[in-house]
Amino acid sequence: MNFLLGAFKPACNILITFSDAKTRKQVPMKNENGQMVMVPLFQSQENIAAKISIEPLQGKKIEHNGVKVELLGQIEMYFDRGNFYDFTSLVRELDVPGDIYERKTYPFEFSTVEMPYETYSGVNVRLRYVLKVTVSRNYGGSIVEYQDFMVRNYSPPPSINNSIKMEVGIEDCLHIEFEYNKSKYHLKDVIIGKIYFLLVRIKIKNMDLEIRRRESTGSGANTHVETETLAKYELMDGAPVRGESIPIRLFLSPYELTPTHRNINNKFSVKNYLNLVLVDEEDRRYFKQQEITIYRLLDS
Amino acid sequence: MIADGVEDEEKWLAAGIAGLQQNAFYMHRALDSNNLRDALKYSAQMLSELRTSRLSPHKYYELYMRAFDELRKLEMFFKEETRRGCSIVDLYELVQHAGNILPRLYLLCTVGSVYIKSKEAPAKDVLKDLVEMCRGIQHPVRGLFLRSYLAQVSRDKLPDIGSEYEGDADTVVDAVEFVLQNFTEMNKLWVRMQHQGPTREKEKREKERSELRDLVGKNLHVLSQIEGIDLDMYKETVLPRVLEQVVNCKDEIAQYYLMDCIIQVFPDEYHLQTLDVLLGAFPQLQPTVDIKTVLSRLMERLSNYAASSADVLPEFLQVEAFSKLNNAIGKVIEVQPDMPILGVITLYSSLLTFTLHVHPDRLDYADQVLGACVKKLSGKEKLEDKKATKQIVALLSAPLDKYNDIVTALKLSNYPRVMEYLDSETNKVMATVIIQSIMKNKTRISTADRVEALFELIKGLIKDLDDAFHDEVDEDDFKEEQNSVARLIQLLHSDDPEEMFKIICTVRKHILGGGPKRLPFTVPPLVFSSLKLVRQLQGQEENPFGEEESTTPKKIFQVLNQTVETLSNIPAPELALQLFLQCAEAANDCDLEPVAYEFFTQAYILYEEEISDSRAQVTAIHLIIGTLQRMHVFGVENRDTLTHKATGYSAKLLKKPDQCRAVYACSHLFWVDDQDNVKDGERVLLCLKRALRIANAAQQMSNAARGSAGSVTLFVEILNKYLYFFEKGNPQITVAAIQSLIELITTEMHSDSSTLDPAADAFFASTLRYMEFQKQKGGAIGEKYEPIKV
């Protein structure tokens, strides 16, 4: 029995430990199996220091052709399964070929790593960062271990942040003017604004503000676009008359939003929209979509 | 169909309550376990039941009240949460995460209430935020209830003066601003209801709206209770803002209700000081608004205010309340040409009541009101509208009630002009009211001018105003009316004979046109009133001024003569005759022989020409005899003529007993105790003998006709006359004559043919007893009686 078990077991245990694991912030992330796991959080330009300990199974030795660790930034398209595009790839050779008889520890560090893109998990695309440890062997295949970590990049408040102000309407039917106080919002921001009714000839039942995320992947004829509604927030109940102005105050914090990503490595984009929807008594929908930029502001 | 609707509604309400209770249950559980997240979740779900559109306001209210109770518990929980260290600011944000707006806003108001209490932010900021955010509910019923909830939870947290929420940043201005804004928004929603939904359901909608009106009005009530609103602020901010909303909403129901609300909730003192502004709003209201009721209530309130204390009166004068009200009413009437006349009169009636209460000394005001009323009425036909006429009666009665004095009312030159517009029926009613007022208050009307005015007022009773409805008049009512006129005439009096004479002439002028039915009622009091004057003049024969007096008894008699004559024409000869005799007697007392003679002549002519009924003749002849007997003014010749005539008439009466009695009564014409020149014993005896003859004849006729002799009463009566003259010393009446008469009576009484007449027997017996008594009494009379044997 023991023998059998041992046959399928990896020849060694590989443990990746971040050197600042105790102090570094951990955030939940969905792994490939759909389970939530806690992973450390980094941002661009940070040093990623860790140590790898390789411990052969009891009484065994490992012959290897070398040990290396890679830091990979990958984009994975779901429709193009198994195809990874590495946009970042850093390597450290940790050991020359030889044998490992007992537990051996390799500290290493990637300093000021450029990680321009954030970790992202969308409908059709995933962007991940991972540390990959490879113990190369001639036979029995190489032993590989992965450690995911998350990257979030923070932006300062934009220097120019104009409000969005627009008048829209259907001739002789409905004219409204709406205003959102900004065009760029951070994830915990509040959307303040108002809708001013210039002309109302339809019987409006209610009005909602939606936050929609549009993810487009691929390019050219191969472009896939997925739109999700992340928030639906009722702004108004009942039929207004001309001259009414309805306030907007939408807190973004309760929603799981993603910052806007524009053309990530020519592979995908994530855009955010505010969609103002008016519904009339016959359940016809009148809407106007406006793009907003969402960014991640460093928690102070 | 409608029943179904009601049933369905019950079902929906039941379902709503069930949903609400279920979520309230979970909410309670969350509250008990201090689970904020679940508490918010379930309270939002619970409040979602209020999102329904299916319930009428009435039913919705039921649902709302249940939610309201639950929210109180939630508010307590929030309060405890903050005590446990949860930041109120966070809570305030947290509740805003709710996706549905209605639950979100209810929760926001609830947390907001706790927020203000915590004083972590200025009350005004929170209030402002809440009232702004509530704009999200544009559905009228849901919006009204939400804002009503806001008003309810905020009402004890306004930064009023003296409130714990007042601070440097929070002033009463903010409190007012908040309430005003909430009021404005609520009113807009309320008015909007009117224009939503199909036209055929208008009535239903109006009913629903009236069910909701108190929600809107509550804001005004809250305003009125803010201590910090002083007169200046009320004048500068509150009232103009409220009125602006009222005027601009252009909605009949809202305008009516809110104007009334303003008048009822704010202090009278404020109304008085802001009359300009308040009244200025009225002409701007919709033409269909029932302004008259609202304005009337305002005036009523102001009247009561004026009555409350004498100290406030100067305020009324200072602000010229009357002229402002008057102008406002004028304007309202002007801009509402379709206002029914009833409305116009009601308005003026209220204004009149107001001015009478507030400015009882300013008759000119009252007259102005009446004048304005006349102006409005002019150009119109007489009023047909029953309610309007009733209102005019009220209008005209007001001054009478107030002053208890018609004299004051008579000074109102427009008073009679208003009466012109009443139909004759109402005119009479009004006239009766006036007379009753005079009589109740025993008002003295002592100048001819006023009498003239008064009769102008009550001419409905004096004359037939239109000929149309004569026959319908109830006889009793007519008598009642005319009797009251008669009483009125008696009340007119002036101590100055000149004036009194003028009064008489005035009255005469008016009543003579009254027609045959009225004259018998109205002439006698006038005649007696005149005679009273005559006697007054006679009492002060010496003219104290030594001037030529224009009013002499002679002149009055001339007038009287003509007056009474009218009666004989209508014809009412008996009455005329009586009055002539009264006049004659008065002339007698004034030593005006020719006048007295003239009156007698008139009386005799009437007797001869007009009085044909034998019974009336008997009465008349006795009156004539009685009066003539008392006349001392006549010379021998005139007296002879008149007595001769009277005796002649007496003898010509139809029935023998009447003849007999008249004739023996005539005996007195020849023997007047206190006039020495009238003591003609012979003619007395002649009369008595003639009476005896007639009595005999009567006896015989009775015998012939019925087979039994008549009563001896006549004989006994004549015996009494004998005794009278005997005592008075008429030498022609002898003992023998009396003796024989007694015997005659005794024989008659014992004759077979005599009928039994106990009354006559008793009469005779007592006459005999009298004689016996005189004998026993002795003295000169006793001696005279002594020879008579009984």
Automatic annotation (TrEMBL), chain A:
GO terms for biological process: intracellular protein transport; retrograde transport, endosome to Golgi. It comes from the Eukaryota. One of its GO terms (cellular component) is cytosol. Keywords: Cytoplasm, Endosome, Golgi apparatus, Membrane, Protein transport, Transport. Its main location: cytoplasm. The keyword Transport applies. Pfam families: Vps26 (PF03643). It is a peripheral membrane protein. InterPro entries: Arrestin-like_C, Vps26-related. Component of the retromer complex which consists of VPS29 (MAG1), VPS26 (VPS26A or VPS26B), VPS35 (VPS35A or VPS35B or VPS35C), VPS5/17 (SNX1 or SNX2A or SNX2B). Component of a retromer subcomplex consisting of VPS29 (MAG1), VPS26 (VPS26A or VPS26B), VPS35 (VPS35A or VPS35B or VPS35C). Belongs to the VPS26 family. This is Vacuolar protein sorting-associated protein 26A. It comes from Gossypium hirsutum.
UniProtKB/TrEMBL annotation, chain B:
It is found in: Membrane. It comes from the Eukaryota. InterPro entries: ARM-type_fold, Vps35, Vps35_C. The keyword Iron does not apply. One of its GO terms (biological process) is intracellular protein transport. Keywords: Membrane, Protein transport, Transport. SUPFAM superfamilies: ARM repeat. One of its GO terms (cellular component) is Golgi apparatus. It is a peripheral membrane protein. Plays a role in vesicular protein sorting. Belongs to the VPS35 family. PANTHER family: VACUOLAR PROTEIN SORTING-ASSOCIATED PROTEIN 35, VACUOLAR SORTING PROTEIN 35. This is Vacuolar protein sorting-associated protein 35.
